[in-house]
């Protein structure tokens, strides 16, 4: 698969489909392209070109632990640069969970480059903020404090990033542990600050300022609470909320496999929305 140099980072990507309006999809967590490839193929079969990419620090892209903004701001700007480089903007931009947060920031930071939003498994609330801050950042901060960058490289996530792109080991080992800890601590603050926001990363006023349609499929666990998706749907003008999941068990995070089994329904919801958005745009 091709690799693009985007804002000094090597970004691994794939385009599914040969013609039609552009759609960008990003998975939840720190999952690689594979997390949304099947959904992307379903959407491409309906006449769209779907861009899938590994965000920096994910999949087979570069690991670069640096930046003054949140990791999600950086991801949104990377996607904008990649879409621009490919001549794919404006696009329909979508994502699940962490990909959803990035998509919302993309719409706020680059409104001219987005036609509409496809959002599922929206994250919001104190439980989500505290859990994800620990999962994405605190665990690695504590590793670096105990064992330096060698311990970070041996963690499951970064070991996989090194296997996918061997150059990542040299880049990580060249970092001073204190610099790594400082950046990860700064990124962690993004989640802590979002604990009382309707969705992590965006205030009510920011959500009300989004001026493109949005299709929102809420989650059904503590991290992806149904009310978080409903709140975003209430705040974004012109948004619509479509429920496809039954009330979930009282768990922090429903396994990805539960959502994979609903992929056909999710694709149907998004394709219906895209068809209507295309018609309105024309």
State mean pLDDT (0 to 100 scale).
Answer: 94
CATH architecture of the largest domain: 3-Layer(aba) Sandwich
Q: Which fold name fills CATH's third level, the topology of the largest domain?
A: Rossmann fold
CATH level-4 homologous superfamily of the largest domain: Alpha/Beta hydrolase fold, catalytic domain
Number of strands: 8
* Radius of gyration from the alpha-carbon trace, in angstroms: 18 Å
Helix content: 40-55%
Multimerization state: single chain
What does the overall shape look like?
A: globular
Strand content: 5-15%
Low-confidence regions: none
Major sheet attributes: 8 strands, mixed
From the N-terminal CA to the C-terminal CA, the straight-line distance is 33 Å
Biggest sheet strand line-up:
1-2-4-3-5-6-7-8
Count up the helices.
11
Order of helices and strands: EEEHEHEHEHHHHHEHEHH
Pairing-aware structural class of the strands and helices? Answer: alpha/beta
Supply the CATH class of the largest domain: Alpha Beta
Number of domains: 2
